[in-house]
Specification:
Blueprint (H helix, E strand, L loop, with lengths): L1 H8 L11 H9 L5 H30 L4 H28 L2 H25 L4 H29 L5 H30 L1 H20 L14 H14 L1 H33 L2 H24 L5 H10 L2 H8 L4 H29 L5 H13 L2 H15 L1 H17 L5 H4 L11 H10 L2
Helix pairs in contact: 2-19, 3-4, 3-6, 3-7, 3-8, 4-6, 4-9, 4-15, 5-6, 5-8, 6-15, 7-8, 7-11, 7-14, 9-15, 10-11, 10-13, 10-15, 10-16, 10-17, 11-14, 12-14, 12-17, 13-14, 13-17, 16-17
Subcellular location: Cell membrane
Protein name: MFS family permease
Organism: Streptomyces candidus
C-alpha cells in the first residue's frame, strides 16, 4: 500500500507538450462549458459577493447596538473557533456524503442564521450575543462547506481542465474582493448594516439553490467503517505524504505571520508612517490587484515545477513586510504588495491542482480538512503575540522579523528533494478542438 502511494506521489516524467496561444485561450474557458462546474462557479461567485460585503456590515452592526472593539473581536472569534473544532468532522462528512448536498445545507444554515440576525437588527432588539451566536453558526457551517467545496471540482471537471477550473474560481474570488468592500460601505451608508447582512443571507440562499442543481456523474464512495476509523485513515494518509505535511507546516508558519504583519500591523503602519487610512487603502488595492493578476496568470500558465512555484509564491509575501520595515515610498510599497498578491494567487491555484491530482477523491475531503486546520490553528496565537511583540521590539523591527520568518519558511522545504521535485502530470497532447470536445462531453 505504501509502496503504491510512493509511486503515486512520485513526480511524473515526460516532455511537456507545446500548446498554441489560441489553444491555451480556448482551454482556459473550457470548464465553463461544463454545466455542473458552471453552476458551481456561479454559486461561488454569488456567495463571494455576499462574503465581501458581510465584514463591513457585521462591524457596523456591532457598533450600532452599542458594542465596542472587544465585542467585535468576540463576534469574529466566534466564527473561527467552530471551524477549528469541526473541520475534521467536516472532512469525514465531505468524503461520506454527496459534496453538493453538504454545500447546499451549509449555505442554507448560514442563510437562516443571518436572516434571523437581520430581523433582530431591523427590529431594534439585537444584542451582541445574538451576533456572536450567528457568527458561530456560520463558522460551524463553513467547517463542513470548505472540504466539500475543495473536492467537488474533482467530481465535475475532467483532469486536464482542473487547473483552468481552479484558476477561474480564483479570478472570480479575487475580482469580487476589489469591489466588494466598497459595495459594503455603500450599503451600510444607504440602508444600514442590517440590510448589508441581509444581502449576504440572500446570496447564501441563492447559492444553495444553484448547488442543489449540480448533478454528479457518480456517487461519492460510501465508507462503511466508523467515524473514528475514517478520521484515522485520513490522518494516516495525510502524514504518509511527506511533501504534503511539509508544505502544510510551511503554511502554518507563513499564514499567521502574514496575517499579523499585513492585516493587523499593516493598518498601524499606515496610520503611523503613511499618514492615515487613505494611503493604506491604496496599498490594499495594490494587493487585490495582484491577486486578480496572479489568478489570470495561473489561468494561462500551468507550470510543472509545483514545489518551486509554491515556495516562490509564498516567499513573495515577505516583500511587503520588508518594504514596510524599510519605510519605502508609497508607490514602491504598492508594487511590493501587488507582487505578493500575484505570487500568492499563482501558488494557491497551482497547489490546489496538485492536491486534486495526487489525493484520491474518496479521501480528498479529509486531506483538505487536515490541511486547512494546520494553517488556521496557529492564527489566534499569532494575533495574541503581535501586540506585545510590536510594543517590545518596535513596529518596524517586528515587520522585519516577519519578513525573515516568511523567507526562511519558504526556503526550508526546498532542501527536501521530494518537494523540489513536485510536478503536475504532463497533459496529453491535444489541440483546442480536443479540449472543447472534452468539455462538451461533460455537459
Amino acid at each position: 500500500m505504501r509502496k503504491a502511494r510512493r509511486l503515486h506521489d512520485r513526480s511524473p516524467a515526460g516532455p511537456v507538450p507545446r500548446i498554441s496561444w489560441t489553444g491555451r485561450v480556448r482551454e482556459a474557458g473550457a470548464p465553463l462549458a461544463i454545466r455542473p462546474y458552471r453552476l458551481h462557479f456561479t454559486a461561488r461567485l454569488l456567495s463571494w459577493t455576499g462574503s465581501a460585503v458581510a465584514p463591513i456590515g457585521l462591524a457596523f452592526a456591532v457598533l450600532q447596538i452599542g458594542g465596542g472593539p472587544g465585542a467585535l473581536g468576540a463576534v469574529l472569534a466566534a466564527s473561527v473557533v467552530p471551524q477549528i473544532l469541526l473541520l475534521l468532522v467536516g472532512g469525514v462528512v465531505a468524503d461520506r456524503l454527496s459534496r453538493a448536498r453538504v454545500m447546499v445545507w451549509s449555505n442554507i444554515v448560514c442563510a437562516v442564521a443571518e436572516a434571523a440576525a437581520v430581523l433582530l437588527l431591523v427590529s431594534g432588539t439585537a444584542q451582541v450575543w445574538h451576533l456572536v451566536a450567528m457568527s458561530a453558526v456560520c463558522g460551524a457551517a463553513g467547517a463542513f462547506f470548505t472540504p466539500a467545496a475543495g473536492g467537488i471540482v474533482v467530481e465535475v471537471v475532467p483532469a486536464e481542465l482542473r487547473h483552468a477550473a481552479n484558476a477561474l474560481l480564483k479570478i472570480g474570488q479575487n475580482t469580487v474582493k476589489v469591489a466588494g468592500p466598497a459595495l459594503g460601505g455603500v450599503l451600510v451608508a444607504v440602508v444600514g448594516p442590517g440590510w448589508a447582512l441581509g444581502w449576504d443571507a440572500l446570496t447564501f440562499a441563492a447559492s444553495a439553490l444553484l448547488f442543489s442543481r449540480i448533478s454528479l456523474k457518480a456517487k461519492t464512495v460510501k465508507v462503511r467503517t466508523g467515524f473514528t476509523s475514517d478520521l484515522r485513515e485520513g490522518w494516516d494518509d495525510f502524514r504518509s505524504r511527506r511533501w504534503l505535511w511539509v508544505m502544510v507546516c510551511q503554511a502554518a508558519v507563513i499564514v499567521p505571520v502574514w496575517l499579523v504583519g499585513y492585516q493587523l500591523l499593516g493598518p498601524v503602519y499606515g496610520q503611523q508612517v503613511l499618514g492615515g487610512a487613505a494611503p493604506w487603502g491604496v496599498v490594499v488595492s495594490g494587493f487585490t490587484a495582484g491577486l486578480v493578476a496572479g489568478a489570470a496568470l495561473a489561468l494561462m500558465w500551468k507550470p510543472r515545477q509545483v514545489g518551486l512555484v509554491v515556495c516562490a509564491g509564498t516567499g513573495s509575501m515577505a516583500v511587503p513586510l520588508a518594504a514596510m520595515a524599510a519605510a519605502v515610498p508609497l508607490p514602491v510599497l504598492v508594487i511590493a504588495t501587488a507582487v505578493a498578491g500575484t505570487g500568492l494567487a499563482v501558488s494557491m491555484t497551482v497547489w490546489a491542482s496538485l492536491v486534486q491530482e495526487r489525493i484520491p477523491a474518496d479521501r480528498l475531503g479529509r486531506t483538505l480538512s487536515y490541511s486547512t486546520l494546520g494553517q488556521i490553528l496557529p492564527v489566534p496565537f499569532g494575533y495574541l503575540l503581535a501586540g506585545p511583540a510590536s510594543h517590545l521590539f518596535g513596529l518596524r523591527t517586528t515587520l522585519a522579523s516577519g519578513a525573515l520568518i516568511i523567507t526562511a519558511a519558504a526556503l526550508v522545504p526546498l532542501a527536501i528533494a521530494q518537494v523540489r521535485g513536485l510536478c503536475l502530470a504532463p497533459e496529453a497532447t491535444k489541440d483546442a478542438d480536443g479540449v472543447a470536445a472534452a468539455a462538451r462531453a461533460e455537459r
